[in-house]
Design a protein that fits this description.
heterotrimer; A alpha+beta (about 350); B mainly alpha (about 280); C mainly alpha (about 290); A: about 350 residues; alpha+beta; Rossmann fold; 2 domains; 6-stranded mixed beta sheet; 5-stranded antiparallel beta sheet; 19 strands; about 30% strand; elongated; C: about 290 residues; mainly alpha; MetI-like fold; globular
């Protein structure tokens, strides 16, 4: 049991590339911390620095009250689950789990107890003598988990452990990982690029971009109050609608929009209505596409004669497009003109560079 | 697949059997000759069917040797060849796998220079450096010794390259997992890398064993004592005397015994052999 | 190309490369350097004094008709061995590539000569075609050929070429078969649909697709003919009759054995080294190697 503290941690590669530009994170004892961000944002590098697989070029990493900057991975009392599992292909499931314990000189009897217990928990007991290649993807994933569990480490580290599984298995394993972590109550750091995984797993969510932390907090807080436009567009699917506010009609609708350059509205915060929300936003849209998901419907509309949206990050909406969520299966038809209205308290206002919330 | 007509297929079988016959005929002849009487052979009256001297010839070949040219029992020559072949094959694999390990898994000054130094030996086969190498081996007092037979041939750019290629395909995460599991460079090598290299080592061993067993020029130069002779050198000495004295049945029996171990290896371990051959040439 | 995950250690990597490096330096580089140095020196008849003579040893070599003849002979041998062995092996491989019953048996029966050592090949062939007692010689004489490779240089050369080509069939066969099997069947089927008859299919589709393999094998066979025929020549003809079967490698060996001119012998070694370097360069430049540095 331990807390993990990162104090202005930096990583500069010999070539001069700054992968991590000063990160501060505090993960409390037994908490589940998720690092999320697009690929290349430095989240994996940061995790590998905690593991000791990458050197730390600035700042301090502290595990359980001990600065581990110069400590070998094996001596940090951590266990890691890799994206490709990194199982030893020539060892049986049993030996894969036992290997780390043997290297530490643990008695065989104790190893046996631990491995069998882990196998029971992970439902791997019938497969202990098999080789990794004889297992399915989900089973291999569980062996990788087992290898981490038997060590009874202070900290679990997960590097996108579910990304090699198919969608259905991924959801099942996500739930299992969370249950297991709750029961063992071991401090965990988990890296993913999947915001849904991040939202559902995290006690503390760390959203990263370009080697920096964009926002830290509990997932709902981050969802409700994204600190920057990057977080706003990264967390939530479909992403938040972000529209520029200049001296245009849109800005004049909103009360207290001084200093704001961008307004963000989540698709689910719109209502299709003919009324005008006082101090809120009302958009005239032409429906261009409709997606029926079953429980809800997404309406893709374009604003006429409006300025282009701020597509600051890849994967965002095309300029001028607005997504509106409608509950159920009813909704407008393609080509229809609609008014999408959002009240003032559902608006997220940001400075023009998208780095700061305003108007609250 | 484009279907072949009956005649085409028939022709293919015939051509293949002709090929096999051409390939096998000299060996068949050797087998026949080794079972016949030397006097008959020397007269040019050899029959194309096996004779009755099988046991006698092979007994004399293995345990006594020729009565004229070299009096060394061929069994002893085979033992010399075996020791040399094993030393060369195991030695090459051992020193190559550890140098490849160093080159792939460590960063150190002169790493690439050392890699190239090893690599360039591809262009220095023993044939182009025989006498200077002979002189060094002589100066080191290694003539007529197993060390002298094997050491100068034991470096292997091919094997080093092969292991390097293989190590590059081993996922990085395996080493990282090992480090987290508390394994250092030695343990990682012994517990993970070596077991993973098993097939490669076996394939390489098959090829290198054959290569070692079939060495000729080098043993010919540095062995002078009859009891250090390898079988390839021994067989040559059996036909050095004038033709009239050559004991052909024994020569042929020796030829068959000389090819027995490597051919056996090729046929029995065909998969590994083919793999090794293709891997070492690419 | 480099690994990202590595170990940190100052001395261990040197210890790991030390054995190989020691062998390479003592038994490969040192002798090679010796040969180069020696090739620029001239020793007097009694071995009492040596003097630096620049390229005199080399010039002498090229003025020597026997050396020039050995160069030509080596290339003729190489070419003859490569062409005869390659064409026969290609024929067999094309046949074995067909979906025949017993194709694995055919492969097994054709690849084993790879394992036969050159001196053994020499012994087998010398016995088969021995002028007085060889089984095949009887038939040759019955056909009216005055067969005596012990006296006739051309016949001796033919014998060496045949024996050397025989040994190399299995190697070439194996690589041709692998090459043929790597040609996608769909390409051949497409050619069949385009109306190409089997023979035409072979020359217009299969043969061009096989050309990298052919080129690769050509280089390998030439290297083989240069160096690995030593054992065959030494057991069959000892370079004779006269010098009719003396190749470059064999000449280095015999000249050195006679203990004659050290400088000349060294110069010959250096020339051989240059040839190896060239052959290796050709192989790397034109044959796509999967080695990346």
């Amino acid at each position: 049991m331990a807390n993990v503290t990162l104090r202005s941690v930096r990583k500069t590669y010999p070539g001069g590339f700054e992968a991590i530009k000063g990160v501060d994170v505090d993960v409390g004892d037994g908490q589940f911390c998720v690092l999320v961000g697009p690929s290349g944002c430095g989240k994996s590098t940061l995790l590998r620095m905690v593991a000791g697989l990458e050197t730390i070029t600035g700042g301090e990493i502290d595990i359980g009250g001990r600065v581990v900057n110069q400590v070998e991975p094996a001596d940090r009392d951590i266990a890691m689950v890799f994206q490709n599992y990194a199982l030893y292909p020539h060892m049986s499931v049993y030996n894969n789990m036992a290997y780390g314990l043997r290297n530490r000189g643990m008695a065989e009897a104790e190893i046996k107890t631990r491995v069998e217990e882990a196998a029971r928990v992970l439902e791997l007991s019938p497969m202990l003598e098999r080789k990794p290649r004889q297992l399915s993807g989900g089973q291999r994933q569980r062996v990788a988990m087992g290898r981490a569990i038997v060590r009874q480490p202070k900290v679990f580290l997960f590097d996108e452990p579910l990304s090699n599984l198919d969608a259905k298995l991924r959801i099942a394993m996500r739930v299992e990982i969370r249950k297991l972590q709750r029961r063992l109550n071991t401090t965990s750091i988990y890296v993913t690029h999947d915001q849904l995984e991040a939202m559902t797993l995290a006690d503390i969510l760390v959203v990263m971009n370009g080697g920096q932390v964009e926002q830290i907090g509990n997932p709902l807080e981050i969802y409700q109050k994204p600190a920057t436009t990057f977080v706003a567009s990264f967390i939530g699917a479909p992403p938040m609608n972000l529209m520029p506010l200049r001296a245009d009609e849109l800005k004049s609708q909103i009360t207290g929009a001084d200093g704001a350059g961008i307004v963000g509205i989540r698709p689910e915060d719109f209502v299709i209505s003919s009324e005008t929300g006082s101090g809120g936003v009302a958009l005239g849209l032409t429906v261009e596409a409709i997606e029926h998901v079953g429980a809800e419907t997404f309406v893709y509309g374009s604003r006429q004669r409006e300025e282009q949206g701020v597509a600051a990050n890849p994967g965002e909406l095309p300029p001028g497009e607005v997504i509106v969520r409608v509950p159920g299966v009813s909704g407008p038809a393609i080509g229809e003109r609609i008014r999408a209205v959002a009240p003032r308290d559902k608006l997220h206002l940001y400075t023009a560079d998208g780095r700061k919330r305003v108007g609250e | 697949m484009v279907e072949e007509e009956g005649f085409q297929r028939y022709l293919a079988h015939v051509i293949l059997w002709i090929g096999i016959a051409i390939v096998a005929f000299p060996v068949y002849l050797a087998l026949v000759a080794s079972t016949q009487d030397n006097a008959v052979i020397a007269n040019g009256q050899m029959s194309l069917l096996p004779g009755g001297h099988f046991l006698q010839t092979y007994y004399q070949t293995l345990f006594v040797g020729t009565s004229g040219s070299t009096r060394e029992p061929v069994l002893h020559m085979m033992l010399n060849s075996l020791i040399m072949a094993l030393l060369i094959a195991v030695g090459k694999i051992a020193i190559s796998i550890i140098s490849a390990y160093a080159i792939v898994y460590f960063r150190f000054p002169f790493r690439m220079a050392i890699f190239w130094i090893i690599f360039i030996t591809l262009m220095l086969p023993v044939e182009v450096r025989i006498y200077p190498t002979y002189k060094i081996v002589a100066d080191l007092h290694l003539l007529d010794s197993y060390a002298g037979l094997s050491l100068p041939l034991i470096a292997s750019a091919t094997a080093t390259l092969l292991f390097r290629q293989f190590f590059m395909t081993v996922p990085d995460e395996l080493l990282e997992a090992s480090r987290i599991d508390g394994a250092g460079p030695f343990r990682f090598f012994w517990d993970t890398l070596l077991p993973l290299s098993r097939t490669n080592m076996a394939a390489l061993f098959v090829i290198l064993f054959i290569l070692g067993w079939n060495q000729y020029l080098w043993p010919l130069l540095i062995t002078t004592r009859d009891d250090m002779q390898t079988i390839q050198v021994g067989i040559r000495k059996m036909i050095t005397t004038t033709d009239a004295l050559t004991e052909w049945p024994i020569v042929m029996a020796t030829a068959l015994l000389a090819m027995l171990p490597p051919v056996f290896v090729v046929v029995v371990m065909q998969k590994l052999f083919v793999r090794g051959l293709v891997e070492t040439e690419k | 190309m480099q690994k990202q995950a590595i170990f940190q250690s100052k001395l261990l990597p040197y210890a790991l490369v030390a054995p190989q490096l020691a062998i390479v330096l003592i038994f490969f580089y040192w002798p090679a350097v010796q040969a180069v140095i020696q090739s620029f020196l001239l020793q007097d008849a009694f071995g009492l004094s040596t003097s630096f003579v620049w390229f005199e040893n080399y010039l002498d070599l090229f003025k020597e008709p026997a050396y020039f003849a050995a160069i030509v002979r080596t290339f003729v041998f190489s070419f003859a061995i490569a062409v005869s062995s390659l064409s026969f092996a290609l024929l067999l491989a094309v046949m074995a590539d067909k979906p025949l019953r017993g194709s694995t048996l055919y492969r097994t029966l054709l690849i084993w000569p790879y394992a036969v050592a050159p001196p053994v090949v020499g012994v087998l062939w010398v016995f088969m075609l021995h002028p007085s007692l060889g089984v095949l010689s009887r038939y040759l004489r019955a056909m009216g050929i005055d067969w005596n490779p012990l006296l006739d240089g051309d016949q001796a050369a033919a014998l060496i070429i045949l024996a050397a080509a025989w040994k190399q069939i299995s190697y070439n066969f194996l690589f041709f078969l692998a090459g043929l099997q790597s040609i996608p069947k769909s390409v051949i089927e497409a050619a069949a649909i385009d109306g190409a008859r089997p023979m035409r299919r072979f020359w217009t589709v299969i043969f061009p697709l096989l050309s990298p393999t052919i080129f690769f094998l050509l280089v390998i066979n030439i290297v083989y003919a240069f160096f690995d025929t030593f054992g065959i020549i030494d057991t069959m003809t000892r370079g004779g009759p006269g010098k009719a079967t003396e190749t470059l490698v064999y000449k280095v060996y015999t000249d050195g054995l006679l203990g004659g001119n050290l400088g000349s012998s060294a110069a010959q070694s250096v020339i051989l080294m240059v040839i190896v370097v060239m052959l290796t360069a050709i192989q790397f430049r034109f044959v796509e190697r999967k080695v990346t540095y």
